[in-house]
Design brief:
Helices cover 45% and strands 22% of the residues. The chain is an alpha/beta fold. Strand 7, helix 8 and strand 8 form a beta-alpha-beta unit. Helix 1 (3-15) packs across helix 3 (29-43). The longest helix is centred in the first third of the chain and has 27 residues, at 59-85. The chain is elongated and about 70 Å long. The N and C termini lie far apart (60 Å).
């Protein structure tokens, strides 16, 4: 077995078949097929079920996905370490990220990380639920995962670092009924036109609680992509209820942001597997830990 065979194996899985993987890898398909046959012979198991011209990952193949990704990541870590010792730098850290934490604290984390390690790259992969983030980390597709949930997250075999709890705010176009920085209660949004995400998110739950009061509050737009919400707000379509992560960006765009009191909180956490982190990922996790301590201190100061 060698690293090349594992790279081929993962490429076949990620690209959905031998022909597409061969094209991406720039190798002849017969060579790719032979490499997989040799790997299966070495391991003593079939990695794929051949169905006509296609393939389906076998149960054994599925079990070997995570270890294969770890092996290749560890080999890359060795190469990166050797490169740094020879005066060269490079490499990346992969982070699965949900939309709102992807605004903040991810922005601050990437800013600090790239200042500390200008030759390293942060590569993010979109996920839309805590379960998706956990699955990406558990499978080895990403080393780290930044998520937000209605309550603190726990998952077997996963290390969870609590970063902060973000309150929710109301965001509207400047000149509207909301005064920037002036707290309001959920019932103050009664009768307004609201922009919401699809059901299942904490954001949508808060909006549904407002509309359930039966006070002529209308949901005028339901969007899957959170990045569409702020542009809709700025054009005057409606008011959005968003985690406080959006506050700085919204104000820079000229929007009014008002704290909602009382409100639920989005619990933001960074997750990782207990072992097999590359040096770059460990550094990113250390920065996250430092930021969590900073945010906790700021929260204590605000409440005192």
């Amino acid at each position: 077995m060698d690293a090349r065979q594992l790279e081929y194996f993962l490429a076949i899985v990620e690209h959905g078949g031998f022909s597409k993987a061969a094209a991406v890898l720039h190798v002849a398909q017969p060579s790719l097929s032979q490499a997989m046959a040799n790997l299966e012979s070495d391991l003593g198991v079939s990695l794929f079920h051949r169905l006509g011209r296609g393939v389906v990952l076998s149960e054994a193949g599925a079990e070997l996905l995570e270890p294969s990704r770890r092996v290749l990541r560890d080999l890359n870590a060795v190469r990166e370490k050797a490169a740094s010792l020879s005066g060269l730098h490079g490499g990346s850290v992969e982070v699965a990220v949900m939309p709102s934490p992807g605004i903040e604290p991810l922005t601050t984390l990437i800013q600090r990380f790239t200042e500390l390690h200008p030759s390293l790259t942060v590569s993010t992969q979109a996920a839309f639920t805590p379960a998706e983030v956990i699955a990406l980390v558990r499978s080895g597709a990403c080393e780290l995962g930044l998520l937000g949930a209605a309550s603190p997250v726990s998952a077997p075999g996963i290390d969870v670092l609590s970063v902060e709890a973000q309150p929710f705010v109301a965001v509207s176009a400047a000149g509207g009924d909301i005064q920037d920085g002036v707290p309001l209660r959920p019932e103050d949004l009664a009768g307004r036109k609201l922009i919401a995400s699809r059901r299942g998110s904490l954001m949508r739950t808060i909006v549904d609680d407002i509309t359930a009061a039966g006070t002529d509050t209308d949901i005028v737009a339901v969007v899957d992509h959170r990045t569409s919400i702020l542009p809709l707000v700025m054009t005057g379509v409606g008011i959005a209820v968003l985690p406080a992560a959006w506050t700085r960006l919204a104000r820079r765009c000229g929007a009014a942001v008002a704290p909602i009191e009382p409100t639920a909180h989005l619990h933001v956490a960074m997750i990782s597997l207990p072992a097999h982190l590359t040096p770059a990922a460990r550094s990113f996790l250390d920065l996250t830990r430092a930021l969590a301590r900073q945010r906790a201190a700021e929260s204590r100061d605000d409440s005192s």
